[in-house]
């Protein structure tokens, strides 16, 4: 059972509900193919029905972990760190990113943007979800917009979201894995007609790596 004292530290961001951490190859978006250390933080209330890490949703089942331990582990593997979830911005990311920066690491985040942006980031991948839209101020900070395409209407949603990001934000359409065979031809055709978009694939799944 997590004590009130520990929860206070979690709420301050000096401990985080850590689901898993692992060294692998970034499989998606702009940095695909790059070796990176992933920090997956538990806790998410966005609730995408097709989410492939639903076990990350309940923060209470993931042990509160001191960020000093997370930082030490990350810095021993790679100079590129990806913080993901769950929804990492559920928690204050300031202490974690400050500690990672003392190690001169490049820090990326993958977020739905459903909560205010905290922390200092070298790369922000914004992946909005219809269930809980991003807070307005995060759009201008996004380096990369990644829309998961489950059906054709998601292309309409993609354009609505693209209209809100900065002009230098890179736009990606990524098929949801379970419907990829159906959606890839639709996405390819759409990108050919709308070349401001790029195709993103979950290449790590094709490579059979985490």
UniProtKB/TrEMBL annotation:
One of its GO terms (molecular function) is carbon-nitrogen lyase activity. GO terms for biological process: tRNA queuosine(34) biosynthetic process. The keyword Membrane does not apply. Pfam families: Radical_SAM. [4Fe-4S] cluster binds at residues 44, 48, 51. S-adenosyl-L-methionine binds at residues 50-52, 86, 127-129. Binds 1 S-adenosyl-L-methionine per subunit. Its EC number is 4.3.99.3. Substrate binds at residues 25-27, 40, 84, 210. Keywords: 4Fe-4S, Iron, Iron-sulfur, Lyase, Magnesium, Metal-binding, Queuosine biosynthesis, S-adenosyl-L-methionine. Catalyzes the complex heterocyclic radical-mediated conversion of 6-carboxy-5,6,7,8-tetrahydropterin (CPH4) to 7-carboxy-7-deazaguanine (CDG), a step common to the biosynthetic pathways of all 7-deazapurine-containing compounds. Homodimer. This is 7-carboxy-7-deazaguanine synthase.
């Amino acid at each position: 059972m997590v004590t009130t004292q520990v929860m206070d530290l979690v709420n301050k961001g000096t401990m985080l509900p850590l689901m898993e951490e692992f060294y692998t190859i970034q499989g998606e978006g702009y940095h695909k193919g790059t070796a990176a250390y992933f920090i997956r933080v538990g806790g998410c209330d966005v609730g995408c029905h097709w989410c492939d890490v639903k076990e990350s949703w309940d923060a209470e089942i993931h042990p509160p972990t001191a960020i000093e331990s997370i930082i030490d582990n990350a810095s021993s593997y790679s100079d590129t760190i990806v913080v993901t979830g769950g929804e990492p911005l559920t928690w204050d990311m300031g202490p974690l990113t400050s500690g990672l920066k003392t190690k001169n690491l490049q820090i990326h985040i993958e977020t739905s943007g459903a909560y205010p942006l905290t922390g200092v980031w070298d790369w922000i991948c914004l992946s909005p979800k219809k269930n809980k839209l991003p807070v307005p101020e995060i759009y201008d900070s996004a380096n990369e917009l990644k829309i998961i395409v489950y059906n054709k209407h998601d292309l309409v949603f993609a354009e609505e979201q693209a209209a809100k990001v900065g002009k230098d934000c890179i736009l990606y359409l990524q098929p949801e894995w379970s419907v990829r065979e159906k959606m890839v031809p639709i996405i390819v055709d759409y990108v050919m007609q709308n070349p401001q978009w790029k195709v993103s694939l979950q290449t790590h799944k094709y490579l059979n790596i985490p």
